[in-house]
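Revision sheet: structure tokens.
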Amino acid sequence: MIYVWQLLLWGIQLLLWLFCLAQDSAALQSVIGWCAAFGALISAVTFVWLLPKAYRSLLWRRRKSVRPSREVQLERRRMAAALHDGVGSQLVHLISLSEQHPAPAMRRALEQCLLDLRLIVDSMDAQDESLGVLLARFRHRLQPVLERQGISLHWDVWDPEAMGGAGCLPRGSMAREIMAVVQEAISNVLQHAQAHEVWISLAATAQTGASSVFVHACLSIEDDGKGLIQAVGQDMGTESSAGMGLLNMRRRAQAIGGKFEIQPRMAGGTKITITW
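Predicted:
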């Protein structure tokens, strides 16, 4: 925006020089007249130089809207289609080949890659959707993967909009941060927990005030796997792969003003909660 103000100031200065020259037809015969002409020339050159910069500055300000431009949306759809049709079809082919030559570890890794890819494709076209919609899409992608690995999914998600209640679940960037925590937690279950059951639940924690944009709620992910191997407090301060995953989940929760907790499940396994 500074270029716009500079353009305005130089334009005013150019008009003043031209006004001085226009007042006296014999101005060029004096030193003052030549100074005025030189000043007008410098002002004109600077004005022309600033003009495209000011125009680009105005366009840039217009693009700072929360909603992406039509060009960005089209590019996202193109990339999503390319990922789905290219990489996605190759992963499906590799999974079918693994059925002919059984290798459980490789098959699980391929299914995890395919799940991650589909979630990425979904997220590219879900910039302003609510958490309830994102969770429903996540369940649709996750359930077949869990069933193939012999893991039961228990789903208990509360959505005030679907039930006709007051308030609404987070949407936009806040919903995406919460979903990133859920995806990381489920990824850990699939890769490390050796679980047989997974519970995903969402419930309200307090009445929503008049000044609140979204409802206050708690989202939990539980499993009956082998549980925590070492103290969480030690993991959070290290740069190990396990510690970095937990650290990233905590950072995402803090970014939305929420609270992240991880603890052993009473009946065995692990329980992760994010509260906002």
